[in-house]
Amino acid sequence: MTVTAVSDNRATALDLQELVRRLAAPDDAEVAGLDAWWRANNYLTVGQIYLQGNPLLREPLRNEHIKPRLLGHWGTSPGLSFIYAHVSRLIKRTGQQSIYLAGPGHGGPALVAAGYLEGTYSEVYPKVSLDESGLLRLFRQFSSPGGIPSHVSVTTPGSIHEGGELGYVLVHAFGAVMDNPDLLAIAVVGDGEAETGPLEGSWKGVSFINPEHDGAVLPILHLNGAKIAGPTVLARKDPAEVRRLFEGHGYDVLEIEGEDLPGMHHRFAATLAEAWGRIKTIQGTARGGQWDGSRPRWPMIIMRTPKGWTGPDKIDGITVTGTWRSHQVPLSGVKGNEDHLRELEKWLRSYRPEELFDATGAPVALIRDVAPAGDLRMSASPHANGGLLTRDLDMPDFRDYAIEVKKPAEGRAESTRKLGEMMRDLYTRNPDRFRLFCPDETNSNRLGAVFEVSDRAFMEGVNDDDVKIGRTGRVMEVLSEHNCHGWLEGYNLTGRHGMFATYEAFAMVSASQTVQHGKWLQEASHLPWRAKVPSLNILLTSTAWRNDHNGFSHQGPGLIQVVLNQRGTVARVYLPPDANTLLSVADHCFRSRSYVNLIVIDKQPQLQWLTMDQAIEHCARGAGIWDWAGNDDGAGDPDIVLACAGDVVTMETVAAAQILKERLPKLRVRVVNVVDLMALPRPKDHPHGMSETMFRELFTDDVDVVFSFHGYPGAIHQLVHGRPDADRFRVRGFIEEGTTTTPFDMTVRNRASRYHLVMDAINNAKRLPAGATELKTWCESQLAKHEQYVVDHLEDMPEVRDWSLGDWAER
């Protein structure tokens, strides 16, 4: 069979038309090969669910051949493998670079089987060889201890999308094709998955894909009628209504329905050829200079087949195929039920395995010939192992964006604005491998410098009132955290770099995606064949402590806790207190691989503490003593340690130290700032954990520590567990007290203000000089004064609002 390479769009329209015509009309030999491949895949799928012996049915099936626990999902699998077979034919005939994303991730056995039939699985896992012993290992490992899960997990060659948590297949697919012009992402959407919120919002991806420099996504909505225990919404709707829904989203809808064979092979081949031809026409027009700039109507396919297609029609007189009963394991009581055992054997033999595998147990030539060669196999695509394609960013020198700091806390600046300038130059230097993803908040989060070099991506209509928006843009803004997060995941997993920036409280909208991505990276770290990919970088700003007008709904630092609970091999949390530390942290994160990097810093003008050289050293250590903020000369242990992690709480901590220095000068106060939160655990608990010696140098062995933290107080207790006398850490942080109020009032409401910290220091210091009681009384009076002042004046007291170190130095 001749491969006609048209993926570079140099083919003429006539060439394309003729190729599409041939693709649409497979001959009898091609259909026979497709059907054999599909039968083999179905056989392997059923075998993975049921068998622990007798993999080729060389003898009658017996109870001991059946696994003790039957786990897996059959219902969606035959549809997934049917599509896979036909896409493989398309690839072989055209040379089209493609990846396959299975939204119904529980169809894992179908995708594992596909990789096995293509030979990739045995290349990656040599013990799962292409013979009878390898086939037995393939079956026994599925959903078994020491084996593989039932999803299209990270262990599955060709996968960038597990699908275990439904709703993300399209966002991953769209992210994968951005700046990836030759890639076609086949995204199979299950009709149960189509009911989820993230998936419902993700159809809008076509409004952001530019056919000049992006690849294409072909969504295939697979309506098989049922989910785990009932019907699905779209499957029960009038087909005309469903068609109008997706036409309203902007898709060119192609439909196919049936279960008859070989008719379905012919019809699907024609439908897939038509969809591919339309994609190539759109891309050819755009890249050939004939495009008018309007949003293309990209094709999608709606495929209706019975759930559990080719499985047992009825079991014990009850209909199974085409119903929810085929969703998982149709014959769940095989062991000990002779009728069910015979029904299972009949089902397996219906695929005629003796025609599909030779005497050694290897797939026959008819099946092997369906797969394309080498890296064109979807299970072997380097796009699905994106670290193989990753190129380092051309990084500007982050020092070039430094803020001059002559003395700590002398001036204020919007720290994230400097990061925006750095990302502006990343866009310029890396036009094909760096993007910012942000839910309509780029300017709000002070990152707008990127618009100096790129518009927002948008393929819908624009008008004269629109600013920095258009079809050539590569800044990704859509008011959906799920879309932005998922696009970046797909972008990362196919080898490109970026950042997801969002308001802190609403990072919880997509927190589950953060968790799932961390799990993917964690598992990938155990697979030597998985190349490391660019890290998932998340910037949280508009933080809990500075949402002056939005109020309590916008006040929540929960994602920190979420990331802290992930494994140390992937989780990183940074709390830079100023612009220079932010730049140093960002440079590190953009260079890193296979981490979830969470950076938290506010966008409002804030005091600047460290010179760039100091910031670099501080970030390298992860934490350090700020000698200038305390009065601890290092000759012995201090009386109290004031520690902090986070920008606003750092200011409150330094202010508290200054109050103590002025009013209780004989009290020895040490100030410790933590920028890398993962420096606090023990080295055995996290690779960034500081040594026992360094921990002792910062926090001593027995002096009480008043720790002011950006997030929930329990996080610090979790991190210092196992450190010397961990109970001496008294943590102040966000305790779910908030409203529409002033910045300082937020710290007061959460009992983390400078006055609360001073009182904590007095209550817990090793020794107290004269005047401590009077100072506590003064703090209480200041809090009372504050409470009345903000109500009367609608702003914070001048001594708080305009505070700087210079104020205290001059007294």
Automatic annotation (TrEMBL):
<dbReference type="InterPro" id="IPR018970">
    <property type="entry name" value="Xul5P/Fru6P_PKetolase_N"/>
</dbReference>
<dbReference type="Pfam" id="PF09364">
    <property type="entry name" value="XFP_N"/>
</dbReference>
<feature type="domain" description="Xylulose 5-phosphate/Fructose 6-phosphate phosphoketolase N-terminal">
    <location>
        <begin position="27"/>
        <end position="388"/>
    </location>
</feature>
<protein>
    <submittedName>
        <fullName>Phosphoketolase family protein</fullName>
    </submittedName>
</protein>
<dbReference type="Pfam" id="PF09363">
    <property type="entry name" value="XFP_C"/>
</dbReference>
<dbReference type="InterPro" id="IPR009014">
    <property type="entry name" value="Transketo_C/PFOR_II"/>
</dbReference>
<dbReference type="InterPro" id="IPR029061">
    <property type="entry name" value="THDP-binding"/>
</dbReference>
<dbReference type="InterPro" id="IPR019790">
    <property type="entry name" value="Xul5P/Fru6P_PKetolase_CS"/>
</dbReference>
<comment type="similarity">
    <text>Belongs to the XFP family.</text>
</comment>
<dbReference type="InterPro" id="IPR005593">
    <property type="entry name" value="Xul5P/Fru6P_PKetolase"/>
</dbReference>
<keyword id="KW-0456">Lyase</keyword>
<dbReference type="Pfam" id="PF03894">
    <property type="entry name" value="XFP"/>
</dbReference>
<dbReference type="InterPro" id="IPR018969">
    <property type="entry name" value="Xul5P/Fru6P_PKetolase_C"/>
</dbReference>
<keyword id="KW-0786">Thiamine pyrophosphate</keyword>
<dbReference type="InterPro" id="IPR019789">
    <property type="entry name" value="Xul5P/Fru6P_PKetolase_ThDP_BS"/>
</dbReference>
<feature type="domain" description="Xylulose 5-phosphate/Fructose 6-phosphate phosphoketolase C-terminal">
    <location>
        <begin position="603"/>
        <end position="804"/>
    </location>
</feature>
